[in-house]
């Protein structure tokens, strides 16, 4: 099953998502700030990254740009997780290098569909 790098600083969210994703058969690697996320993307080679945009140390916008500008990580799909759900926010995360956008609060079934689409696989039932 696919390896997911979850870059999220809020314990309730990373705990909820990592447990549910693991139950669906995904391998989950956690990072709690943008700098750690970039480092773990380079070392753990995830199949997909779920990236919170409001992170400490290095924000998600900068992390996405760093990952997409690095030849080793540029092909990894990134789904932005963000509380920003205003008009134009989707376009901003795409411009930062993310491949898709998921507003918080997380709709887990929709997120699974987005993960499947990014990986080119159907979602796990």
From TrEMBL:
Q: Does the keyword Kinase apply?
A: no
Pfam families the record matches: Response_reg
Q: Which UniProt keywords apply?
A: Phosphoprotein, Two-component regulatory system
Any single GO BP term: phosphorelay signal transduction system
Out of the domains of life, which is the source?
A: Bacteria
Q: Which residues form the Response regulatory domain?
A: 3-119
Q: Which PANTHER family does the UniProt record give?
A: HYBRID SIGNAL TRANSDUCTION HISTIDINE KINASE J
Q: Quote the protein name from its UniProt record.
A: Chemotaxis protein CheY
**Which species expresses this protein natively?**
Methylobacterium tarhaniae
């Amino acid at each position: 099953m696919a390896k997911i790098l979850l870059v999220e600083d809020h314990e309730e969210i990373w705990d909820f998502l990592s447990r549910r994703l693991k139950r669906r058969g995904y391998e989950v690697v956690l990072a709690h700030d943008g700098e750690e996320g970039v480092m773990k993307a380079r070392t753990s080679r995830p199949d997909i990254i779920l990236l919170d945009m409001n992170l400490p140390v290095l924000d998600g916008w900068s992390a996405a740009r760093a990952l997409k500008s690095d030849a080793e990580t540029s092909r990894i799909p990134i789904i932005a997780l963000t509380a920003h759900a205003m008009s134009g926010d989707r376009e901003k995360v795409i411009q930062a290098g993310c491949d898709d956008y998921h507003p918080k609060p997380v709709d887990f079934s929709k997120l699974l569909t987005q993960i499947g689409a990014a990986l080119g696989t159907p979602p796990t039932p």
